[in-house]
Please model this.
Amino acid sequence: MLYHTYEMAHAALAPMRQMARFGRAALSSPANPLAESYGARVGAAGLDMFIKATQRYAKPEFGLHSTVVDGVEVAVVEEVTLSLPFCNLLHFKRNTTSPAPKLLIVAPLSGHYATLLRGTVREMLPDHDVYITDWVDARDVPLSEGDFDLDDYTDYLITFCEALGSRPAVLAVCQPGVPMLVAAALMAARGEDFRPGSMTLMGAPIDTAVNPQKPNELATSKPLNWFRQNVITKVPWPNAGFMRSVYPGFLQLSGFMSMNLERHMQAHRDHFHNLVKGDGESTAAHRKFYDEYMAVMDLPAPYYLQTIERVFQKRLLAKGAYYYRNHRVDPAKITDIALLTVEGEKDDITGLGQTEAAHKILKTPKKMCKHYVQEGVGHYGVFNGSRWRAQIAPMVKAFIARHG
Model:
């Protein structure tokens, strides 16, 4: 009933949103002689805040239409290389004949869309032939497509590496660190030609017992059955995934917001005042951020629950007790895949040291391994922002080139 209640509340507010849009337009219209008065600006700002607070945010666009290769601007076209029920392998095809190493960016399946890594893709495009995992909202996947769990996730990563061909570079951000290591171990044990040549893990929860943060504490403070009973629900009609068991995106978003509630409240207070003042630049920046941040997707229930259990509660990979389809995974089979781990000094989602733990479970020679901590950044600063562009990305590119 939780999802149905959410949907009914959203539908019930639809007439009020429409009235608010009408009122905002009337108050802000150039034809309104009082449009520039303080009262009209306050009223329009309040209505705008109501609309934004109650609307549903659609999946954003990547919007990467060009890049610069060897000093020349070239066009970039998005194309789906491989389409699977729960994920599309999206290719950013550059209009150039300049050769470039293939790079698979594994976006997290943790509530937000892959577009959250827009800055990551943009920075890697000039030097790489970039592909990314574009996860599909579980509420849009028909029940006839079957379930999707952590082992299926691993299968998808292996399939995507195979699609890229011989020894691709892989960059996994946050949550996919564990399934990517599992996939790499399986490919290495089988001697697959398409196993990665290098792996870059960024802010990944490889061992969540190291420096646990709020998400770790939440996942371990309650038994698995609590999550099954309290946060798993069925997708309502008329969504394509009707009756699929999911962890709803709106619950995940509430969790994200609660972690830094005061900061979000202050950001919205500032936004209201900027609307009243007519500060277009500040309001545009706020909207750009929250249009992305508020766009969330549902997660398949089996995958979500297995992640809680295997990664956070039991730490199976870190303990050497991780099983993939009843087969114990041996990370020590990874002996020729270069490993770079990147962490943020102020990461409040994946604690400092959790990603570095990957080096303890692999047998890759030390000359092929590197760990880096970026000072002054949190979780998102590891793969987005000025420090990513100026310091982290150049190092990642150099590492990939050295171990290509």
Summary: The two ends are 51 Å apart (CA to CA). The longest strand covers residues 72-84. The chain is about 45% helix and 20% strand. Residues 1-56 form one domain.
